[in-house]
Structure formats: structure tokens, C-alpha cells
Specification:
- The chain is mainly α and 446 residues long.
- 57% of the residues lie in helices and 4% in strands.
- It has 21 helices and five strands.
- The strands form two sheets. Strands 1-2-3 form a three-stranded antiparallel β-sheet, with no helix packed on it.
- Strand 1 and strand 2 form a beta hairpin.
- Helix 2 packs parallel to helix 19, helix 5 packs parallel to helix 8 and helix 7 packs across helix 8.
- The protein starts with 13 loop residues before the first helix and ends in a 6-residue tail after the last helix.
């Protein structure tokens, strides 16, 4: 009985919940059936995080296995794009209207739904088998992550903007949207790191997408320079940790956040991976932009993230490397590549139905006209946000901090560093790796 109380979804209900997840169209967002999907998604996310947190104690990640088996990761990416298209096409037209305060209730839930989808993907894609299950949708996910990360660069000061005493419904919605988009962008840094770390598991065209379309190393270099996970408050410096801003002082100011660690390791893997770097044309602009990261690799950072010592040495040689000739570019054009399809398909559906018709329907939905019942929706959300079931998960801050992080094989602490030989086991420090080597050596793949 005690074991059952630690679940948001009981084991015998997992298959039912997982199989009930469906793709939805942009026009369906915010309607009654969509809220049923939202209720299921929130519970699944809570259960997946709960199992991931207790995985170090030997608990099986049943939810993760079920989602991979039923190929639901592709649905998550599709639905995240549906909300992205809704935000870019439908929401601006809706906000031109005079909205009542109750309209924000549904809009906030839609924003939160997208953040939940991204959070669930972050939890699952830590595992290589989840990356492999993406198949062709890895291209769509890469595009989604890069647009969210670039949005971090464009909106780097949005979280620190001054607050007005009185704001309109429209201004409040726009502010909440920026807040959620910031959190999504931070999570996308982790997702991108997992994808680059497991590149052999995903589509072959992903390399071309990362290198030629998005120029990922330059994007990561810019993120490392603007450091969106740090902001200056009124009386202190704040770090974005565990999905919230926290004031830090003293030695804590120099502490590396999870988002920063993932960004550095992603850049390191990209530049030190022969498969990726071999496809990367070295130009004077790229040399200049990426080499600027040398100045950020100070001793305090390397002490916390020792593998970055190799990256610092590489950047010294990269700064003086010869530019790549045109031959490599011509050779790449001979490759047949897959292209992302989800966003274009959703846009076609919007234009076929008619944007004006969709906006008209959503205005009715937001005002709870027709079959839409506010009390019914509120009841669904109350069941979904079952915080009591997760009380054990958030009792201690260290448990919460490690909810999505890999754990040290020796001491169980948060451990973003991998064994450089087998790359399948994590350690929090070189000391733990050395002390554990005797036990790990027979299983290490050289």
C-alpha cells in the first residue's frame, strides 16, 4: 500500500494513460477534449519525474519504457509544435480583441501544456534509447530546440523587466508567455545536449541540420556569453536553478548551474566529435566567434567541470586552424537528406481551415461559450495537479535538484561528467571516478 501511495499513476493504469495520448490540431487547442489530453499529460509527466528521481534506488522507470514502446515521443514533438504554431499565428489575433480576465485561465494552461511537453522530453531523452525512438522526428526536435534557444538570446532581459502595478490582461498574458518561453529555452539546452551526446542514435540528417542549417557551435557560444541563467536582482545576483530564480552570494556566485553545464558539454561534444567537426566548415567568422569562449574557461569553471580542460586546449588550436576549402561544401550537396515536416503540415492545416475561422472559434472557447464549462475544466485541472502525490519528491532540495540529473556511480551525487572510455557511467568528480575504477574496469568498453 505504501508503494502505491508513491505513484501518481498506478502501474496497472500506465498502459491506459499512455495509449490515450493523441495528436491534436491547432484548432483543437483549448477545447474540452484537449483539456482531457492535458490532464493525462500532466499526470504522466509527474509519474515520469517521480520514477526518474527514484531510479538510483533501483526503481524501474515503467512510464519511460511504456512511452518509448508506444512511440509517444513523436506525439509530444507534434503537439509541442501545434502550440508553437498556435502562439505564433492564432494568439496574436486573439490578443487584438478585448479580453476578459477569465480568458487568461485557458491561455495560461496552454502555455503550461507546452512547457510540460518539453519537460517530459527532457526527462526521457536523458536515456539513449529514447533518442533512438525519435527516428525522423529528431530533425523537428532540433529545429524546435534551436528556435527556443535563439529566443533566449533575443529575450535575455525579459525575466528581469520591471513590473508595473497595473497591467492589462493582454500585458499579463504576454509577460507569462515570456516567462514560460524562458523556461522552455533552458530545458531545450539540456535536450540539445542529450541529442548531440547520442548522435549515433538519431537520424543521419541530424548532423547536417545541426551544422549547416543552425550553425549550432556559434549559437552555443553566444548563449555562453550572455549567460541567461544568471541575472542581477535589486540587491543580489540570482541563478536559475530547479526551474526558479534563487539569490546566491559568496562562493555560490561562481557555482555552475545545470543549464550552463549542459551548454558547455554540448559545445565540447560538438567540437571534439570527429563526426560533427568533420562536417563543419571552418571560416574566419566561426573561428572568431567560437574562440571567444577561451576567455570563459577560467580555472574555477574547469575545477567544477574537469572535461572542459580538453575543450580549452582544442580552442587554442581552433583559433589558428586553416579555413576549410570549397570542396567539402560541394561534396555535401550530393547527400540525400530528410527534412522536418511537422511544422509545415500544421501550418497547412491552419490555412486550409482558415485562420479567421480558428480565431473565431477560440474567442468562443476563451469566453466559455457553447459546451465549454469552466467548472468542468477546473475539476480536470484539480485532478491533474495532484501535488500531494508528489510531496515526497520535493521534501528536500537536494532531491529536487537531482530529479533530472545523472547520478554519480559511487556516491550518488549529481554527476554531469561521464567516463571518457565507455561514456555510459557518470561521476561527480575525478576522485570518485578513481575510487570506483577497480569495480568499473571489467565493464568499461575500451
Amino acid at each position: 500500500m505504501a508503494e502505491r501511495e508513491k505513484n501518481v499513476i498506478y502501474p496497472e493504469e500506465v498502459d491506459f494513460h499512455v495509449k490515450s495520448l493523441r495528436k491534436y490540431r491547432v484548432a483543437d487547442i483549448g477545447k474540452t477534449l484537449w483539456f482531457t489530453n492535458h490532464e493525462v499529460l500532466v499526470k504522466i509527466h509527474q509519474q515520469a519525474v517521480l520514477e526518474a528521481t527514484e531510479a538510483s534506488t533501483g526503481r524501474e522507470e515503467v512510464m519511460k519504457d511504456a512511452l518509448i514502446l508506444e512511440e509517444k515521443l513523436k506525439i509530444f514533438i507534434h503537439n509541442a509544435y501545434a502550440i508553437l504554431v498556435w502562439r505564433h499565428k492564432v494568439l496574436p489575433e486573439v490578443l487584438k480583441q478585448k479580453l476578459s480576465p477569465q480568458c487568461s485561465f485557458i491561455i495560461y494552461t496552454i502555455f503550461f501544456h507546452e512547457a510540460t511537453l518539453v519537460g517530459l522530453l527532457e526527462t526521457l531523452l536523458f536515456h539513449p534509447e529514447a533518442c533512438e525512438a525519435l527516428e525522423e522526428t529528431s530533425l523537428d526536435l532540433i529545429d524546435y530546440c534551436l528556435q527556443a534557444i535563439i529566443q533566449l538570446i533575443a529575450e535575455k532581459d525579459a525575466e528581469g523587466a520591471a513590473e508595473n502595478e497595473e497591467v492589462s490582461v493582454k500585458e499579463e498574458i504576454e509577460k507569462y508567455q515570456r516567462t514560460l518561453q524562458f523556461r522552455i529555452g533552458i530545458r531545450c539546452l539540456s535536450i540539445l545536449s542529450f541529442l548531440v551526446d547520442n548522435l549515433e542514435k538519431i537520424s543521419l540528417s541530424a548532423v547536417s541540420r545541426l551544422v549547416e542549417i543552425h550553425d549550432t557551435p556559434c549559437v552555443l557560444s553566444e548563449i555562453l556569453h550572455i549567460r541567461p541563467w544568471i541575472r542581477h536582482g535589486k540587491d543580489s545576483i540570482e541563478h536559475f536553478m530547479d526551474d526558479e530564480w534563487r539569490p546566491v552570494c559568496g562562493e555560490e556566485v561562481m557555482r555552475v548551474t545545470k543549464a550552463e553545464a549542459h551548454t558547455w558539454f554540448c559545445l565540447r561534444e560538438f567540437l571534439l566529435n570527429p563526426r560533427l567537426l568533420g562536417s563543419y566548415d571552418v571560416t574566419s567568422f566561426r573561428q572568431r566567434e567560437i574562440s571567444k569562449c577561451q576567455g570563459l574557461l577560467h580555472d574555477v569553471l574547469i575545477d567544477q567541470l574537469p572535461p572542459l580542460g580538453d575543450l580549452k586546449q582544442f580552442l587554442v588550436t581552433f583559433a589558428v586552424a586553416k579555413e576549410t576549402g570549397e570542396g567539402a561544401k560541394k561534396a555535401k550537396k550530393l547527400l540525400l537528406e530528410e527534412l522536418p515536416e511537422i511544422r509545415e503540415k500544421l501550418l497547412r492545416e491552419v490555412y486550409e481551415k482558415g485562420l479567421e475561422n480558428i480565431v473565431r472559434e477560440h474567442l468562443k472557447v476563451l469566453s466559455f461559450e457553447g459546451s465549454q464549462n469552466m467548472s468542468e475544466i477546473a475539476s480536470k485541472l484539480t485532478k491533474a495537479y495532484n501535488l500531494d502525490a508528489l510531496e515526497d519528491l520535493y521534501k528536500q532540495e537536494d532531491v529536487k535538484r537531482r530529479s533530472l540529473d545523472p547520478l554519480c556511480a559511487l556516491c550518488g551525487a549529481s554527476a554531469p561528467k561521464k567516463c571518457s572510455k565507455c561514456r555510459s557511467i557518470h561521476y561527480c568528480s575525478r576522485e570518485c571516478q578513481m575510487n570506483h575504477w577497480k569495480a568499473h574496469k571489467p565493464f568499461c568498453r575500451k
